[in-house]
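Backbone-to-sequence.
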C-alpha cells in the first residue's frame, strides 16, 4: 500500500471510532433540511450565546442545530411572524422570544447572530448585527448583488466582525466533510476538476413563500443553490479566485412563475488552473426518496472521488453519505453517516472567541458569494 493509501486507511479508522449519531429530518423537503448530530461541545454551558433573527428559510434550524451541538446556547429568537417564533421555540425551548431585533443586538451576552432572512435582505441584517458588535452567520446565499458584497466587506473591515455563511451542502454533509479529509491527506493527488450536481425538489409551489419566486429577492438559481457548488469548488480545489467561463439559466416547466429559474449551469476556471462544471435545478421527481440526488465528482492527478450525498439511488436501503474513492490502491466505498460529524460549527464558535479563521476564512466566504452573483449576472437565458 502506498503512503497515501495508508493515510486513507488511518483516516477512516479514525472516522469509524467516532460514535456520532446522525438523523436526517424532512428528507423530502430541502427547504427544511436540518441535519442533527451528536453533541460535541467546545465550550462550557452558557459560555457562548447566540440568537436567531429572521426565520424566513428553514435552514435556520440546521444552523442552530450545528451550533448547539457544539455547545452554543440559543438565548433569543425574533421574527415578526409569531407562528414562526412559536415553531422555533418548540425546537429550541431554551430560547426566549425577543420583543424586537434591538433587544437582541443590545444584549452583550449574544456573541453570534444567526439569520435566514429573505435572500436579498440577508446582507442588511448582517450589517446591523456587525455594527452592533456581533459576529454574523447567515444562510446561503449570503447576498444578491455586488453592491451588497462591497458593503459587507467594508463593515467587516470597519468592525472586525465575521460574516460567515451556512454553505450546508459541504459543511453539514458528512460525505462532503470526509471528502475534504481524503483530499487533504493526498488520496487523489492534486484536485484539478469538479463536476457538481445539485437537483432540488420544488414540491407544491403554492407551499413556497412568495419571495421564492421573485428574482430580485431570491437572487436567481445560480446565486441561490448554485452558491453551494461554487463554494465546494473553491474548497476542494484550493482555489482563491476564479472566472466564470459561461453560465446559463432557464425556466423550462413553471410558466405560472415567470421569474423562477428552474435550471442553471456554469463552468468556472480557478486561478490555479482547476476547473468546474455544475448543474442545479428544481426537477427532483416525486419518486425519489429525498429532496435531491446531490452528487459531486472530484478528479485528482492520482485518483478520483464520487459523493452520493443524500441517497444511494435504486438500493432502497435508506442510506446516505456514500463516498467512493478510486486511486492507485484500488476501489473503496465508505458509508460515513454518523462517523464523521460536523467540525465546522465547533471551529466557528472557537473562531468567534479567539478571532481565528479555522472554520472558514472571511475571504473564502466572500469569494464564493461574489462568484455566484457574477455567474448569475452574466448568465444567458436559454428558455
Amino acid at each position: 500500500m502506498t503512503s497515501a493509501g495508508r493515510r486513507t486507511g488511518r483516516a477512516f479508522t479514525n472516522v469509524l471510532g467516532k460514535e456520532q449519531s446522525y438523523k436526517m429530518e424532512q428528507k423530502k423537503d430541502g427547504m427544511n433540511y436540518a441535519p442533527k448530530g451528536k453533541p460535541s461541545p467546545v465550550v462550557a454551558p452558557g459560555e457562548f450565546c447566540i440568537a436567531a433573527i429572521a426565520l424566513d428559510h428553514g435552514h435556520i434550524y440546521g444552523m442552530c442545530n450545528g451550533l448547539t451541538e457544539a455547545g452554543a446556547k440559543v438565548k433569543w429568537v425574533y421574527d415578526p411572524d409569531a407562528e414562526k417564533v412559536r415553531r422555533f421555540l418548540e425546537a429550541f425551548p431554551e430560547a426566549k422570544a425577543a420583543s424586537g431585533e434591538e433587544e437582541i443586538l443590545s444584549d452583550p451576552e449574544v456573541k453570534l447572530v444567526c439569520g435566514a432572512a429573505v435572500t436579498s435582505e440577508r446582507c442588511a441584517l448582517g450589517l446591523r448585527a456587525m455594527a452592533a458588535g456581533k459576529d454574523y452567520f447567515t444562510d446561503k446565499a449570503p447576498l444578491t448583488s455586488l453592491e451588497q458584497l462591497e458593503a459587507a466587506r467594508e463593515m467587516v473591515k470597519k468592525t472586525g466582525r465575521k460574516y460567515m455563511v451556512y454553505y450546508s451542502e459541504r459543511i453539514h454533509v458528512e460525505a462532503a466533510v470526509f471528502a475534504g479529509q481524503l483530499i487533504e491527506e493526498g488520496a487523489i493527488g492534486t484536485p484539478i476538476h469538479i463536476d457538481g450536481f445539485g437537483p432540488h425538489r420544488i414540491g407544491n409551489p403554492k407551499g413556497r413563500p412568495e419571495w421564492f419566486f421573485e428574482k430580485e429577492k431570491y437572487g436567481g438559481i445560480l446565486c441561490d443553490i448554485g452558491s453551494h457548488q461554487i463554494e465546494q469548488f473553491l474548497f476542494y480545489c484550493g482555489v482563491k479566485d476564479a472566472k466564470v467561463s459561461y453560465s446559463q439559466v432557464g425556466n423550462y416547466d413553471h410558466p405560472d412563475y415567470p421569474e423562477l429559474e428552474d435550471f442553471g449551469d456554469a463552468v468556472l476556471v480557478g486561478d490555479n488552473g482547476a476547473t468546474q462544471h455544475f448543474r442545479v435545478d428544481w426537477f427532483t421527481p416525486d419518486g425519489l426518496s429525498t429532496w435531491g440526488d446531490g452528487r459531486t465528482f472530484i478528479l485528482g492527478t492520482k485518483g478520483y472521488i464520487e459523493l452520493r450525498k443524500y441517497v444511494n439511488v435504486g438500493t432502497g436501503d435508506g442510506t446516505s453519505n456514500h463516498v467512493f474513492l478510486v486511486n492507485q490502491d484500488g476501489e473503496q466505498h465508505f458509508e460515513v453517516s454518523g462517523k464523521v460529524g460536523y467540525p465546522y460549527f465547533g471551529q466557528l464558535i472557537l473562531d468567534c472567541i479567539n478571532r481565528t479563521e479555522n472554520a472558514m476564512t472571511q475571504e473564502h466566504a466572500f469569494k464564493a458569494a461574489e462568484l455566484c452573483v457574477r455567474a448569475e449576472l452574466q448568465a444567458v437565458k436559454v428558455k
